[in-house]
Automatic annotation (TrEMBL):
GO molecular function: agmatine deiminase activity
Source superkingdom: Bacteria
Active site per the UniProt annotation: C365
Keyword entries, A-Z: Hydrolase
The encoding gene: aguA
Organism: Halomonas rhizosphaerae
Keyword Transmembrane in annotation: no
Protein's name according to its UniProt entry: Putative agmatine deiminase
Family matches, as SUPFAM superfamilies: Pentein
Pfam family for this entry, one: PAD_porph
NCBIfam families from the UniProt entry: agmatine_aguA, PRK13551.1
Family: Belongs to the agmatine deiminase family.
Broadest EC class assigned to this enzyme: hydrolase
Amino acid sequence: MTTHDHLGVPAGASHGTPAEQGFAMPAEFAPHDACWMLWPQRPDTWRYGAKPAQLAFAEVACAIAESETVFVGVNDEQYENARNQLPDHIRVIELSSNDAWMRDMGPTFLTHPDGRLAMVDWVFNAWGGLEGGLYFPWDKDKRIRTKIAEMLGIPRFVAPAVIEGGAFHVDGEGTLITTEECLLNANRNPELDRATMEALLWDYLRVEKVIWLPRGCHLDETDGHVDNLCCFVAPGQVALTWCDDETDPQYTITREALKVLEAARDARGRPLAVHKLPQPAPLYIAEDEASGLDRLSSSHPRQPGDRMAGSYVNFYIGNSVVVMPFLDAAHDEQAREILQGLFPDKRVIGVPAREILLGGGNIHCITQQQPRP
């Protein structure tokens, strides 16, 4: 049972809403003080005891650390291993979790015009709870936001909704983009309709305009997180994963999204410039990749031949670098060149990321930016 004070606010949480107090969520492309990650170790998510995934996470952490401080949270039993695998300038801290998706388990950071930092503590139910969730339990994940708030000494606003960080992107100027498939899913917030959800997003992120895309990438096990499909790269500009193969279910999804984006206006009344990123060729779990996993009844099965929701849009925007997944040799360099054109003042670093994708997400999913107030 959650401990509450006499006003019904969870212990250690701030009263009121962030918007009431003048806090808002800045864009990912705004300056950061740090990036937060978690260390993979779950054997039913990551094959062969997560050793291949740990190498990939370490490479992502090192690339981002060229740009900003990186914190990696680690369960106690993996602390020494992580500390020895990661270079000294990456900050390794004991921060227990059930799995390693900091974007979704971690806080959403907010800033205030007077230079203060705060966070939103969303309800987390492992992407669907007992109705389609990916594992059980998620008790350690639920404590991550509280622990980070304690470490940083910042206000923590507890939101009354199940929302993951990968389910939305903001432009920092009042606009948020998301998918109906995720935010209005019956396994998240069945009692909330679109208008109520928009009001809640204003209260906790201070966004004035929500652009609703119908659905996320094909077979995305997060129920359509927008960060695998579309993201802001600048005010009035988005990157959209794109498919030209009419036989691929992703073909229709991308065109549905494009139709909405081309008709939309952001909170400032601007039309959106849409930059298309090619999707990798369809990627499937190989026999040897599936055989290295523990088989548990409490977790999402990963079988040989299952298609993975690979996307180049799942990248991280740092202060001086953009870290993107390399997934398909036929398209990696083309995607990197497009991103380099969108971020001419940053160095675009491609990291081999199939091991991360095998776990169900990618580089944006395993990172969470801490903005500079």
